[in-house]
Amino acid sequence: MGIGLGVVFVVLGLILTLRVVEFDISFVDDVALGWILLIVGVLSIILVLVMNSQRSRTRHVEERRYDGR
């Protein structure tokens, strides 16, 4: 999941939570689904940012050994 997918989940969650669009599905509550998508989107954005910050702090050391030829 990238940051783009997190943003999409946040936008969809806000649309459903604020009742901009209402769906007539009997077994799904629009507001509850909106909150779930909003929380998943925020968590995915936080997770991507944490993983990218950890990746940028790592160092790679290359060690080369030559035999005496």
Explain what the structure shows:
About 60% of the residues lie in helices and about 0% in strands. The chain has helices spanning about 5-15, 30-55. It starts with a helix and ends in a 12-residue tail after the last helix. α1 runs antiparallel to α2 (about 30-55). It has one domain. The longest helix is centred in the middle third of the chain and has 28 residues, at about 30-55. With about 70 residues, the chain is an all-alpha fold. The protein has two helices and no strands.
Please tell me what the overall shape is.
rod-shaped
Give the terminus-to-terminus CA distance: 50 Å
Kindly give the count of domains. 1
User: How does the helix and strand content classify structurally?
Assistant: mainly alpha
Helix content: 55-70%
- Poorly predicted regions: none
Mean of residue pLDDT? Answer: 87
| H/E series | HH
Overall radius of gyration? 22 Å
Largest sheet: none
How much strand?
under 5%
Count of strand segments: 0
Number of helices: 2
